[in-house]
Amino acid sequence: MTTAETRSESAPARRANRFVVARVDEIPPGDRRIVDAGDRQIGVYNIGGRFYAMLNRCPHLAGPLCEGQVVNAVESPVPGDVRLEESRTYVTCPWHNWEFDVETGQSYWNPRLRARPLPVGVEGGAEIEAALQRGEIDRLPGPYQAEMVPVSVESDYVVLSLRPARGGTS
């Protein structure tokens, strides 16, 4: 929690780097809260009782990322078998619908990829399913990653911990 600081005219002003966001029960599972923390807006998410936070700024076009829809991954290992993968949660940028993993900030979209014809074959479903289960087949990370913010729970309060800017700028 932040405390007031006594400043003299000659002493530089220090920025608070810890902010109380809310009580834990004020952000129920599946919900989010966008807060002002110093000069930044930060989205705080409760995903299954665990808290994650990221800057409310899409690294692609600087859109209000945390205002986007929160969705789970959808998988379809074979045609007609569509499953909701609740262990992976994404926020979609409201400007262009790119998805960013709420836990890591990683995007799995690469605008440099172009559709092109590729050879195709038929493989046994059991081999593909086994490779999926072993984690041998997965999504490739794209070039963008949202900036994540450390968040913790202290005495039933959700608390953000902002680190000083890199390079010693004030």
TrEMBL record:
Keyword Iron-sulfur in annotation: yes
Signal peptide: none
Span of domain Rieske: 19-129
Keywords from the named record: 2Fe-2S, Dioxygenase, Iron, Iron-sulfur, Metal-binding, Oxidoreductase
A GO MF label: dioxygenase activity
Pfam families: Rieske
UniProt entry tagged with the keyword Nucleotide-binding: no
Superkingdom of this protein's organism: Bacteria
Protein name: 3-phenylpropionate/trans-cinnamate dioxygenase ferredoxin subunit
Organism whose genome encodes this protein: Saccharopolyspora phatthalungensis
